[in-house]
Write a structure and sequence with these properties.
Helix content: under 10%
Number of helices: 1
Distance between the termini: 34 Å
Radius of gyration: 13 Å
CATH class: Mainly Beta
CATH architecture: Sandwich
Strand content: over 45%
Order of helices and strands: HEEEEEEEEEEE
CATH topology: Immunoglobulin-like
């Protein structure tokens, strides 16, 4: 079942993009249905790809480095639960940014979408 990008964009919490001490972060909140992440593609911001080993995904269920997510080490995406995506690296400059997000779930296959947000 392919979920349209316009629906997936609703997962992004607008205004959540911010610079933090060791990089930047943004948040997602699942409003569609429960899922299980089995793979994550590197996050891209303005076309720049960030390595999975610099990506930390956090929720009330714990945290995991993006490169550690797999079929045997999946990450739950519960409805109504915020997920923070933290990218370690250089902070982003002020202004609008395009974020490309792609992940694979057991339930719906690959979910890929982009969003725009500003710092």
């Amino acid at each position: 079942m392919q979920i349209p990008a316009f629906l997936l964009r609703k997962l992004y919490i607008k205004g959540s993009l911010e610079n933090v001490e060791d990089g930047f972060s943004f948040k997602l909140k699942n409003s569609l249905s429960p899922g299980t992440t089995t793979a994550v593609a590197p996050i891209k911001v303005n076309g720049n790809e960030y390595p999975l080993d610099s990506t930390v995904i956090r929720s009330i269920d714990g945290e995991v480095v993006g490169s550690e997510i797999s079929e045997s080490n999946s990450f739950p995406i519960k409805v109504g639960v915020e997920i923070e995506i933290h990218i370690k690296g250089e902070p982003l400059p002020a202004g609008e940014h395009t974020i490309d997000i792609s992940l694979k779930t057991k339930e719906a296959g690959t979910l890929a979408f982009d969003v725009k947000d500003s710092i």
